[in-house]
Amino acid sequence: MPRDEIRVQIQRIDSEGHAANFVETEQIVHYNGSKASFVQTRGSIPVFWSQRPNLKYKPRPQISKVANHMDGFQRHFDSQVIIYGKQVIINLINQKGSEKPLEQTFATMVSSLGSGMMRYIAFDFHKECKNMRWDRLSILLDQVAEMQDELSYFLVDSAGQVVTNQEGVFRSNCMDCLDRTNVIQSLLARRSLQAQLQRLGVLHVGQKLEEQDEFEKIYKNAWADNANACAKQYAGTGALKTDFTRTGKRTHLGLIMDGWNSMIRYYKNNFSDGFRQDSIDLFLGNYSVDELESHSPLSVPRDWKFLALPIIMVVAFSMCIICLLMAGKSALISHSSIYFLECLPFFYNILSF
């Protein structure tokens, strides 16, 4: 199978505890000299697991049976606590089927670590929101509302005095930390923004963001664009479920667009991702060049057809020049040149075969 048709199986965490697809997102508000922000993180489930491409739409996750999961897990969250403080972990993967072992492993790791700085919440996104019941996302928001109030947000007034500090972050994940994750992050950020704007006096008590139509449109589009930017880097297409992020409603047109993007992702991930992965490995220094290998992996081998074509074109061009210079003086050369030019398409077809 050609290299471009192979997608390398990659572990979602390394020995230093760095998780794949890790992204920090900060929502910043400026108003009359005051500044407020709300930080969230997303990242792959921090245990040693991977998915091997096998032409299935959803390759089964494989959890390593030999790796020290707790070592990588603890390294990851030790660094997260140092940087961000308390961790509220929201795991959005399925709690049945092929994703179930991952959810169970994640929950077990959190429980085994026994850190008072971490809270774990499992929310089966697909089960809860099936049959277009996306209003049920309010169940999760209600569940974490008190925790979000406890973590708070950062706020500094126009005089430069810190009014409140954010004491921790929500760390959300699904399988690839793209589509489901972005939906939940946008809702959490929206709830924080509501509180910030009331604190800054932009909204009066009792006023809601959804009542500000123009601002609502801009805000939702910003989060949908954020989803697309993350998804294009990793999956090669825009994010799924952005119809909900942009409009607040799940639509049939959105389902169709998700199907189209999913089809493109399937093709790219299985048949054209090898070159991109090689490029990433090269830039990250993960590709080591064998000193005994004489052939450069960056060069494309050329056979005799690529060498012969320029020579034929030079000869043809030369014959044309001769014909123009010696028109009427050498019928033999003229007829030979015309015959040669008429044969060029034939030679080209042979060389292009």
TrEMBL record:
Keyword Membrane: yes
EC numbers: 3.1.3.64
Membrane-crossing residue ranges in chain numbering: 306-327
Domain of life of the native organism: Eukaryota
Entry coiled-coil feature ranges: none
Enzyme class (EC, first level): hydrolase
Keyword Ribosomal protein attached: no
GO terms for cellular component: endoplasmic reticulum
Domain SAC: 1-236
Reactions mediated catalytically: a 1,2-diacyl-sn-glycero-3-phospho-(1D-myo-inositol-3-phosphate) + H2O = a 1,2-diacyl-sn-glycero-3-phospho-(1D-myo-inositol) + phosphate; a 1,2-diacyl-sn-glycero-3-phospho-(1D-myo-inositol 4-phosphate) + H2O = a 1,2-diacyl-sn-glycero-3-phospho-(1D-myo-inositol) + phosphate
Record GO biological process: phosphatidylinositol biosynthetic process; phosphatidylinositol dephosphorylation
The entry's keywords: Membrane, Transmembrane, Transmembrane helix
GO molecular function per UniProt: phosphatidylinositol-3-phosphate phosphatase activity; phosphatidylinositol-4-phosphate phosphatase activity
Name of the protein in its database record: Phosphatidylinositol-3-phosphatase SAC1
Organism: Cebus imitator
Chain's gene name: SACM1L
